[in-house]
Here is the input.
Amino acid sequence: MITSSDNQHLKAIRKLQARRERRRSGMFVAEGEDLVEAAERAGFEPELVLRAGVDVEDELLASASALGSGARVVGIYRQRWSEPGGDLSVYLHGVGDPGNVGAVLRSAHAFADGPVILGPGCADPFSPKAVRASMGSVFARPPARAPFERLAGRTIALEHASERELESVTLGAPVVLCLGSERGGLPESVLAGATVRASIPLRAGGPDSLNVAMAATVALYERSRSANRMADRA
Amino acid sequence: MITSSDNQHLKAIRKLQARRERRRSGMFVAEGEDLVEAAERAGFEPELVLRAGVDVEDELLASASALGSGARVVGIYRQRWSEPGGDLSVYLHGVGDPGNVGAVLRSAHAFADGPVILGPGCADPFSPKAVRASMGSVFARPPARAPFERLAGRTIALEHASERELESVTLGAPVVLCLGSERGGLPESVLAGATVRASIPLRAGGPDSLNVAMAATVALYERSRSANRMADRA
Here is the structure.
Protein backbone atom coordinates (compact mmCIF):
# COMPACT_ATOMS: atom_id res chain seq x y z
CA MET A 1 0.00 0.00 0.00
CA ILE A 2 1.45 3.35 -1.08
CA THR A 3 1.39 5.79 1.83
CA SER A 4 3.67 8.58 0.60
CA SER A 5 3.11 11.15 -2.13
CA ASP A 6 6.80 10.78 -2.94
CA ASN A 7 6.08 7.33 -4.34
CA GLN A 8 7.46 6.93 -7.85
CA HIS A 9 4.17 5.65 -9.31
CA LEU A 10 2.25 8.67 -8.01
CA LYS A 11 4.99 10.92 -9.32
CA ALA A 12 4.71 9.29 -12.74
CA ILE A 13 0.93 9.90 -12.78
CA ARG A 14 1.35 13.53 -11.80
CA LYS A 15 4.07 14.13 -14.39
CA LEU A 16 1.82 12.80 -17.15
CA GLN A 17 -0.50 15.75 -16.59
CA ALA A 18 2.03 17.71 -18.67
CA ARG A 19 1.86 17.39 -22.45
CA ARG A 20 5.64 17.49 -22.68
CA GLU A 21 5.96 14.44 -20.46
CA ARG A 22 3.27 12.61 -22.43
CA ARG A 23 5.13 13.35 -25.64
CA ARG A 24 8.50 12.37 -24.16
CA SER A 25 7.27 9.09 -22.70
CA GLY A 26 4.52 8.14 -25.13
CA MET A 27 2.33 7.36 -22.12
CA PHE A 28 -0.93 8.79 -20.78
CA VAL A 29 -3.29 8.44 -17.85
CA ALA A 30 -6.91 7.32 -17.63
CA GLU A 31 -8.86 8.10 -14.46
CA GLY A 32 -11.90 6.20 -13.27
CA GLU A 33 -13.45 2.77 -13.53
CA ASP A 34 -15.27 3.47 -16.81
CA LEU A 35 -12.10 4.45 -18.64
CA VAL A 36 -9.95 1.69 -17.20
CA GLU A 37 -12.63 -0.79 -18.28
CA ALA A 38 -12.80 0.78 -21.74
CA ALA A 39 -9.03 0.34 -22.02
CA GLU A 40 -9.32 -3.32 -21.11
CA ARG A 41 -12.13 -3.92 -23.62
CA ALA A 42 -9.99 -2.31 -26.31
CA GLY A 43 -7.05 -4.57 -25.50
CA PHE A 44 -4.79 -1.99 -23.88
CA GLU A 45 -2.37 -3.50 -21.37
CA PRO A 46 -1.85 -0.99 -18.57
CA GLU A 47 1.71 -0.10 -17.67
CA LEU A 48 0.39 0.54 -14.18
CA VAL A 49 -2.96 0.48 -12.39
CA LEU A 50 -3.50 1.90 -8.91
CA ARG A 51 -6.68 1.28 -6.95
CA ALA A 52 -7.66 3.46 -4.00
CA GLY A 53 -7.72 1.55 -0.74
CA VAL A 54 -5.93 -1.42 -2.33
CA ASP A 55 -2.68 -0.16 -3.83
CA VAL A 56 -2.70 3.38 -2.50
CA GLU A 57 -4.37 5.48 0.17
CA ASP A 58 -7.53 7.20 -1.08
CA GLU A 59 -6.37 10.77 -0.53
CA LEU A 60 -3.02 10.14 -2.20
CA LEU A 61 -4.64 8.85 -5.36
CA ALA A 62 -7.08 11.76 -5.34
CA SER A 63 -4.21 14.22 -5.03
CA ALA A 64 -2.49 12.72 -8.10
CA SER A 65 -5.64 13.15 -10.19
CA ALA A 66 -5.62 15.77 -12.92
CA LEU A 67 -9.38 16.06 -13.03
CA GLY A 68 -10.16 16.23 -9.34
CA SER A 69 -12.67 13.54 -10.15
CA GLY A 70 -12.05 11.54 -7.00
CA ALA A 71 -11.36 8.54 -9.21
CA ARG A 72 -10.92 5.26 -7.32
CA VAL A 73 -8.69 3.82 -10.01
CA VAL A 74 -6.05 5.31 -12.27
CA GLY A 75 -4.14 3.59 -15.08
CA ILE A 76 -1.11 4.48 -17.16
CA TYR A 77 -1.18 3.36 -20.79
CA ARG A 78 1.01 3.57 -23.86
CA GLN A 79 -0.41 5.90 -26.52
CA ARG A 80 -1.61 4.34 -29.77
CA TRP A 81 -2.13 6.20 -33.01
CA SER A 82 -4.09 5.13 -36.08
CA GLU A 83 -3.42 5.82 -39.72
CA PRO A 84 -5.94 8.00 -41.59
CA GLY A 85 -8.48 5.86 -43.42
CA GLY A 86 -12.02 4.51 -43.49
CA ASP A 87 -15.05 5.46 -45.54
CA LEU A 88 -15.81 8.33 -43.19
CA SER A 89 -13.39 10.17 -40.94
CA VAL A 90 -12.84 13.62 -39.45
CA TYR A 91 -9.94 16.02 -39.81
CA LEU A 92 -9.57 18.73 -37.15
CA HIS A 93 -7.45 21.82 -37.67
CA GLY A 94 -6.52 24.15 -34.79
CA VAL A 95 -9.04 22.71 -32.35
CA GLY A 96 -7.25 23.62 -29.14
CA ASP A 97 -9.83 22.64 -26.56
CA PRO A 98 -9.19 19.12 -25.22
CA GLY A 99 -12.84 18.66 -24.27
CA ASN A 100 -13.84 19.27 -27.87
CA VAL A 101 -11.17 16.93 -29.24
CA GLY A 102 -12.32 14.20 -26.85
CA ALA A 103 -15.98 14.73 -27.73
CA VAL A 104 -15.20 14.38 -31.44
CA LEU A 105 -13.30 11.15 -30.75
CA ARG A 106 -16.47 9.81 -29.22
CA SER A 107 -18.79 11.01 -31.99
CA ALA A 108 -16.54 9.61 -34.71
CA HIS A 109 -16.53 6.30 -32.92
CA ALA A 110 -20.35 6.43 -32.84
CA PHE A 111 -20.93 7.36 -36.49
CA ALA A 112 -17.83 6.65 -38.57
CA ASP A 113 -15.48 3.78 -39.39
CA GLY A 114 -12.39 6.00 -39.61
CA PRO A 115 -10.40 7.87 -37.00
CA VAL A 116 -10.22 11.50 -35.98
CA ILE A 117 -7.20 12.94 -37.76
CA LEU A 118 -5.50 15.75 -35.90
CA GLY A 119 -3.87 18.51 -37.93
CA PRO A 120 -1.77 21.39 -36.60
CA GLY A 121 -2.81 23.29 -33.48
CA CYS A 122 -5.04 20.62 -31.96
CA ALA A 123 -5.19 19.73 -28.29
CA ASP A 124 -3.46 16.53 -27.22
CA PRO A 125 -6.03 13.71 -27.46
CA PHE A 126 -4.21 11.96 -24.61
CA SER A 127 -4.61 14.84 -22.17
CA PRO A 128 -6.74 13.98 -19.13
CA LYS A 129 -9.64 16.18 -20.27
CA ALA A 130 -9.66 14.75 -23.79
CA VAL A 131 -9.46 11.16 -22.53
CA ARG A 132 -12.35 11.83 -20.17
CA ALA A 133 -14.48 13.55 -22.85
CA SER A 134 -13.85 10.67 -25.24
CA MET A 135 -15.49 8.35 -22.68
CA GLY A 136 -13.13 5.59 -23.71
CA SER A 137 -13.31 6.07 -27.48
CA VAL A 138 -9.66 7.16 -27.41
CA PHE A 139 -8.92 3.50 -26.65
CA ALA A 140 -11.42 1.90 -29.00
CA ARG A 141 -10.55 4.16 -31.92
CA PRO A 142 -7.14 5.78 -31.50
CA PRO A 143 -6.68 9.16 -33.22
CA ALA A 144 -4.44 9.78 -36.22
CA ARG A 145 -2.08 12.64 -37.02
CA ALA A 146 -1.62 14.13 -40.47
CA PRO A 147 -1.55 17.47 -42.21
CA PHE A 148 -4.43 18.23 -44.59
CA GLU A 149 -2.19 17.76 -47.61
CA ARG A 150 -1.64 14.12 -46.78
CA LEU A 151 -5.32 13.17 -46.56
CA ALA A 152 -6.46 10.64 -49.12
CA GLY A 153 -9.98 10.61 -50.56
CA ARG A 154 -12.48 13.39 -50.92
CA THR A 155 -12.64 16.17 -48.39
CA ILE A 156 -15.60 18.25 -47.26
CA ALA A 157 -14.60 21.53 -45.62
CA LEU A 158 -17.26 22.72 -43.21
CA GLU A 159 -17.63 26.48 -43.06
CA HIS A 160 -20.54 28.64 -41.90
CA ALA A 161 -20.24 30.89 -44.93
CA SER A 162 -20.89 28.19 -47.51
CA GLU A 163 -24.30 28.31 -49.18
CA ARG A 164 -24.03 24.67 -50.10
CA GLU A 165 -25.81 22.56 -47.49
CA LEU A 166 -24.00 19.45 -46.29
CA GLU A 167 -27.14 17.40 -46.88
CA SER A 168 -26.94 18.11 -50.61
CA VAL A 169 -23.38 16.83 -50.96
CA THR A 170 -23.54 13.44 -52.67
CA LEU A 171 -19.83 12.60 -52.73
CA GLY A 172 -19.29 8.87 -52.29
CA ALA A 173 -16.83 7.32 -49.83
CA PRO A 174 -14.12 7.70 -48.76
CA VAL A 175 -14.89 11.13 -47.34
CA VAL A 176 -13.03 13.19 -44.75
CA LEU A 177 -15.04 15.89 -42.92
CA CYS A 178 -12.76 18.86 -42.18
CA LEU A 179 -13.45 21.30 -39.34
CA GLY A 180 -11.53 24.20 -37.89
CA SER A 181 -11.76 25.93 -34.56
CA GLU A 182 -14.97 27.71 -33.72
CA ARG A 183 -13.39 31.15 -33.79
CA GLY A 184 -10.76 30.76 -36.48
CA GLY A 185 -12.44 28.29 -38.81
CA LEU A 186 -10.40 26.45 -41.41
CA PRO A 187 -7.35 28.11 -42.98
CA GLU A 188 -7.58 29.24 -46.58
CA SER A 189 -5.27 26.43 -47.71
CA VAL A 190 -7.75 23.81 -46.50
CA LEU A 191 -10.78 25.67 -47.86
CA ALA A 192 -9.11 25.99 -51.24
CA GLY A 193 -7.86 22.41 -51.28
CA ALA A 194 -11.10 20.71 -50.24
CA THR A 195 -13.18 18.78 -52.76
CA VAL A 196 -16.35 20.53 -51.55
CA ARG A 197 -17.17 23.33 -49.12
CA ALA A 198 -20.45 23.00 -47.26
CA SER A 199 -22.30 24.24 -44.20
CA ILE A 200 -24.74 22.95 -41.62
CA PRO A 201 -27.80 25.17 -42.06
CA LEU A 202 -28.77 27.04 -38.89
CA ARG A 203 -31.94 29.04 -38.27
CA ALA A 204 -31.88 32.73 -39.12
CA GLY A 205 -31.65 34.72 -35.89
CA GLY A 206 -29.97 31.85 -34.08
CA PRO A 207 -26.30 31.58 -33.16
CA ASP A 208 -23.77 32.25 -35.93
CA SER A 209 -22.07 28.94 -35.37
CA LEU A 210 -22.09 25.68 -33.49
CA ASN A 211 -19.41 24.53 -31.12
CA VAL A 212 -16.92 22.47 -33.15
CA ALA A 213 -17.76 19.23 -31.34
CA MET A 214 -21.47 19.79 -32.04
CA ALA A 215 -20.78 20.64 -35.67
CA ALA A 216 -18.61 17.55 -36.11
CA THR A 217 -21.25 15.34 -34.51
CA VAL A 218 -24.04 16.68 -36.71
CA ALA A 219 -21.86 16.34 -39.82
CA LEU A 220 -20.89 12.77 -38.91
CA TYR A 221 -24.54 11.91 -38.35
CA GLU A 222 -25.59 13.51 -41.64
CA ARG A 223 -22.91 11.65 -43.61
CA SER A 224 -23.64 8.33 -41.91
CA ARG A 225 -27.33 8.71 -42.78
CA SER A 226 -26.68 9.75 -46.35
CA ALA A 227 -24.37 6.75 -46.80
CA ASN A 228 -27.28 4.60 -45.58
CA ARG A 229 -29.70 6.26 -47.98
CA MET A 230 -27.32 5.69 -50.88
CA ALA A 231 -26.89 2.06 -49.85
CA ASP A 232 -30.69 1.63 -49.70
CA ARG A 233 -31.01 2.94 -53.25
CA ALA A 234 -28.20 0.77 -54.66
CA MET B 1 -13.30 52.39 -8.75
CA ILE B 2 -13.93 49.44 -6.41
CA THR B 3 -10.79 48.59 -4.46
CA SER B 4 -12.12 46.28 -1.73
CA SER B 5 -13.43 42.74 -1.94
CA ASP B 6 -15.97 43.74 0.72
CA ASN B 7 -17.74 45.87 -1.84
CA GLN B 8 -21.45 45.04 -1.99
CA HIS B 9 -21.49 44.61 -5.78
CA LEU B 10 -18.68 42.07 -5.67
CA LYS B 11 -20.42 40.32 -2.81
CA ALA B 12 -23.61 40.15 -4.86
CA ILE B 13 -21.72 38.58 -7.77
CA ARG B 14 -20.09 36.01 -5.53
CA LYS B 15 -23.36 35.11 -3.82
CA LEU B 16 -25.00 34.42 -7.19
CA GLN B 17 -22.64 31.48 -7.69
CA ALA B 18 -25.02 29.61 -5.39
CA ARG B 19 -28.20 28.18 -6.88
CA ARG B 20 -30.14 29.03 -3.74
CA GLU B 21 -29.27 32.70 -4.08
CA ARG B 22 -30.17 32.69 -7.78
CA ARG B 23 -33.53 31.16 -6.93
CA ARG B 24 -34.14 33.58 -4.05
CA SER B 25 -33.25 36.69 -6.03
CA GLY B 26 -34.24 35.68 -9.56
CA MET B 27 -30.91 37.06 -10.74
CA PHE B 28 -27.88 35.53 -12.44
CA VAL B 29 -24.41 36.47 -13.60
CA ALA B 30 -22.84 36.52 -17.06
CA GLU B 31 -19.06 36.71 -17.34
CA GLY B 32 -17.18 38.01 -20.33
CA GLU B 33 -17.61 40.41 -23.21
CA ASP B 34 -19.34 37.89 -25.50
CA LEU B 35 -22.07 37.12 -23.00
CA VAL B 36 -22.61 40.71 -21.93
CA GLU B 37 -22.98 41.64 -25.60
CA ALA B 38 -25.36 38.74 -26.18
CA ALA B 39 -27.47 40.03 -23.30
CA GLU B 40 -27.58 43.48 -24.83
CA ARG B 41 -28.54 42.12 -28.27
CA ALA B 42 -31.37 40.16 -26.65
CA GLY B 43 -32.67 43.27 -24.89
CA PHE B 44 -31.67 42.37 -21.35
CA GLU B 45 -31.09 45.42 -19.16
CA PRO B 46 -28.30 44.61 -16.72
CA GLU B 47 -28.96 45.23 -13.04
CA LEU B 48 -25.24 45.85 -12.75
CA VAL B 49 -22.18 45.76 -15.02
CA LEU B 50 -18.63 45.90 -13.72
CA ARG B 51 -15.65 46.40 -16.02
CA ALA B 52 -12.11 45.55 -14.94
CA GLY B 53 -9.88 48.60 -14.77
CA VAL B 54 -12.87 50.93 -15.08
CA ASP B 55 -15.29 50.09 -12.28
CA VAL B 56 -13.19 47.65 -10.33
CA GLU B 57 -9.59 46.53 -9.95
CA ASP B 58 -8.68 43.66 -12.26
CA GLU B 59 -7.79 41.15 -9.57
CA LEU B 60 -10.92 41.88 -7.56
CA LEU B 61 -13.17 41.17 -10.51
CA ALA B 62 -11.22 38.02 -11.29
CA SER B 63 -11.62 36.82 -7.71
CA ALA B 64 -15.40 37.25 -7.89
CA SER B 65 -15.57 35.11 -11.04
CA ALA B 66 -17.15 31.68 -10.78
CA LEU B 67 -15.41 30.35 -13.87
CA GLY B 68 -11.90 31.60 -13.25
CA SER B 69 -12.16 32.87 -16.79
CA GLY B 70 -10.34 36.12 -16.11
CA ALA B 71 -13.36 37.94 -17.55
CA ARG B 72 -12.88 41.68 -18.01
CA VAL B 73 -16.58 42.36 -17.62
CA VAL B 74 -19.30 40.82 -15.49
CA GLY B 75 -23.02 41.60 -15.52
CA ILE B 76 -25.94 40.76 -13.27
CA TYR B 77 -29.27 40.13 -15.00
CA ARG B 78 -32.80 39.22 -14.06
CA GLN B 79 -33.74 35.68 -15.12
CA ARG B 80 -36.34 35.27 -17.85
CA TRP B 81 -38.30 32.12 -18.52
CA SER B 82 -40.26 31.17 -21.63
CA GLU B 83 -43.44 29.18 -21.95
CA PRO B 84 -43.26 25.82 -23.72
CA GLY B 85 -44.19 26.15 -27.39
CA GLY B 86 -42.97 26.30 -30.97
CA ASP B 87 -43.03 23.77 -33.78
CA LEU B 88 -39.89 22.13 -32.40
CA SER B 89 -38.63 22.19 -28.83
CA VAL B 90 -36.69 20.02 -26.41
CA TYR B 91 -37.68 18.60 -23.04
CA LEU B 92 -34.86 17.54 -20.69
CA HIS B 93 -35.42 15.23 -17.73
CA GLY B 94 -32.81 14.75 -15.01
CA VAL B 95 -29.97 16.35 -16.96
CA GLY B 96 -27.86 17.46 -14.03
CA ASP B 97 -24.75 18.69 -15.78
CA PRO B 98 -24.90 22.48 -16.34
CA GLY B 99 -22.53 22.28 -19.32
CA ASN B 100 -24.92 19.91 -21.06
CA VAL B 101 -27.95 22.07 -20.26
CA GLY B 102 -26.16 25.12 -21.64
CA ALA B 103 -25.06 23.28 -24.77
CA VAL B 104 -28.63 22.20 -25.47
CA LEU B 105 -29.83 25.79 -25.04
CA ARG B 106 -27.43 26.74 -27.80
CA SER B 107 -28.35 23.87 -30.12
CA ALA B 108 -32.07 24.49 -29.72
CA HIS B 109 -31.48 28.12 -30.57
CA ALA B 110 -29.61 26.99 -33.69
CA PHE B 111 -32.16 24.46 -34.97
CA ALA B 112 -35.55 25.02 -33.34
CA ASP B 113 -38.12 27.78 -32.87
CA GLY B 114 -39.13 26.63 -29.39
CA PRO B 115 -37.34 26.69 -26.05
CA VAL B 116 -35.58 24.08 -24.00
CA ILE B 117 -38.09 22.89 -21.40
CA LEU B 118 -36.55 21.75 -18.15
CA GLY B 119 -38.23 18.96 -16.23
CA PRO B 120 -37.30 17.62 -12.79
CA GLY B 121 -33.67 17.09 -11.82
CA CYS B 122 -32.09 19.41 -14.38
CA ALA B 123 -29.17 21.72 -13.70
CA ASP B 124 -29.96 25.40 -13.29
CA PRO B 125 -29.75 27.00 -16.76
CA PHE B 126 -28.68 30.24 -15.06
CA SER B 127 -25.64 28.72 -13.35
CA PRO B 128 -22.34 30.19 -14.53
CA LYS B 129 -21.34 27.03 -16.40
CA ALA B 130 -24.68 26.72 -18.17
CA VAL B 131 -24.72 30.39 -19.14
CA ARG B 132 -21.18 30.05 -20.52
CA ALA B 133 -21.97 26.83 -22.43
CA SER B 134 -25.07 28.45 -23.93
CA MET B 135 -22.81 31.08 -25.50
CA GLY B 136 -25.53 33.65 -25.02
CA SER B 137 -28.47 31.55 -26.18
CA VAL B 138 -29.84 31.65 -22.63
CA PHE B 139 -30.53 35.33 -23.34
CA ALA B 140 -31.78 34.98 -26.91
CA ARG B 141 -34.02 32.02 -26.13
CA PRO B 142 -34.82 31.75 -22.42
CA PRO B 143 -35.55 28.25 -21.14
CA ALA B 144 -38.94 27.03 -19.95
CA ARG B 145 -39.93 24.88 -16.98
CA ALA B 146 -42.62 22.23 -17.07
CA PRO B 147 -43.22 18.62 -16.12
CA PHE B 148 -43.65 16.14 -18.99
CA GLU B 149 -47.37 15.86 -18.30
CA ARG B 150 -47.92 19.51 -19.15
CA LEU B 151 -46.29 19.39 -22.59
CA ALA B 152 -48.61 20.14 -25.47
CA GLY B 153 -48.19 18.58 -28.90
CA ARG B 154 -46.55 15.34 -29.91
CA THR B 155 -43.58 14.01 -28.01
CA ILE B 156 -40.68 11.90 -29.23
CA ALA B 157 -38.87 10.07 -26.44
CA LEU B 158 -35.26 9.37 -27.39
CA GLU B 159 -33.94 6.12 -26.02
CA HIS B 160 -31.03 3.97 -27.15
CA ALA B 161 -33.06 0.80 -26.89
CA SER B 162 -35.67 1.82 -29.45
CA GLU B 163 -35.47 0.04 -32.80
CA ARG B 164 -37.37 2.86 -34.46
CA GLU B 165 -34.92 5.31 -36.03
CA LEU B 166 -35.61 8.98 -35.47
CA GLU B 167 -35.23 9.62 -39.19
CA SER B 168 -38.25 7.45 -39.92
CA VAL B 169 -40.57 9.39 -37.59
CA THR B 170 -42.87 11.50 -39.76
CA LEU B 171 -44.87 13.24 -37.04
CA GLY B 172 -45.78 16.76 -38.04
CA ALA B 173 -45.30 19.84 -35.86
CA PRO B 174 -45.54 20.70 -33.05
CA VAL B 175 -43.04 18.18 -31.75
CA VAL B 176 -41.16 18.04 -28.46
CA LEU B 177 -37.96 15.97 -28.38
CA CYS B 178 -37.55 14.37 -24.94
CA LEU B 179 -34.18 13.33 -23.55
CA GLY B 180 -33.05 12.00 -20.20
CA SER B 181 -29.66 11.90 -18.58
CA GLU B 182 -26.97 9.83 -20.22
CA ARG B 183 -26.82 7.29 -17.43
CA GLY B 184 -30.41 7.20 -16.25
CA GLY B 185 -32.28 7.81 -19.48
CA LEU B 186 -35.92 8.83 -19.40
CA PRO B 187 -38.21 7.57 -16.64
CA GLU B 188 -40.81 4.96 -17.51
CA SER B 189 -43.62 7.53 -17.16
CA VAL B 190 -42.15 9.62 -19.97
CA LEU B 191 -41.38 6.61 -22.16
CA ALA B 192 -44.91 5.32 -21.71
CA GLY B 193 -46.52 8.71 -22.24
CA ALA B 194 -44.60 9.73 -25.36
CA THR B 195 -46.28 9.73 -28.76
CA VAL B 196 -43.30 7.89 -30.25
CA ARG B 197 -40.10 6.31 -28.96
CA ALA B 198 -37.11 6.50 -31.25
CA SER B 199 -33.33 6.27 -31.29
CA ILE B 200 -30.39 7.80 -33.06
CA PRO B 201 -28.72 4.87 -34.82
CA LEU B 202 -25.10 4.37 -33.80
CA ARG B 203 -22.56 2.06 -35.40
CA ALA B 204 -22.27 -1.45 -34.01
CA GLY B 205 -19.11 -1.71 -31.93
CA GLY B 206 -19.17 2.01 -31.17
CA PRO B 207 -20.17 3.64 -27.90
CA ASP B 208 -23.50 2.57 -26.40
CA SER B 209 -24.73 6.12 -26.22
CA LEU B 210 -24.04 9.73 -27.03
CA ASN B 211 -23.59 12.47 -24.51
CA VAL B 212 -27.03 14.05 -23.95
CA ALA B 213 -26.01 17.36 -25.50
CA MET B 214 -24.73 15.57 -28.60
CA ALA B 215 -27.87 13.46 -28.82
CA ALA B 216 -30.10 16.53 -28.47
CA THR B 217 -28.14 18.37 -31.13
CA VAL B 218 -28.32 15.50 -33.61
CA ALA B 219 -32.04 15.05 -32.94
CA LEU B 220 -32.72 18.78 -33.37
CA TYR B 221 -30.78 18.75 -36.63
CA GLU B 222 -32.63 15.67 -37.88
CA ARG B 223 -36.03 17.14 -37.05
CA SER B 224 -35.19 20.52 -38.56
CA ARG B 225 -34.09 18.81 -41.80
CA SER B 226 -37.11 16.54 -41.95
CA ALA B 227 -39.39 19.56 -41.44
CA ASN B 228 -37.62 21.12 -44.42
CA ARG B 229 -38.03 18.01 -46.52
CA MET B 230 -41.74 17.88 -45.70
CA ALA B 231 -42.10 21.56 -46.60
CA ASP B 232 -40.33 20.95 -49.92
CA ARG B 233 -42.78 18.19 -50.79
CA ALA B 234 -45.87 20.20 -49.86
Observations:
- The two ends of chain A are 62 Å apart (CA to CA).
- The mean pLDDT of chain A is 94.
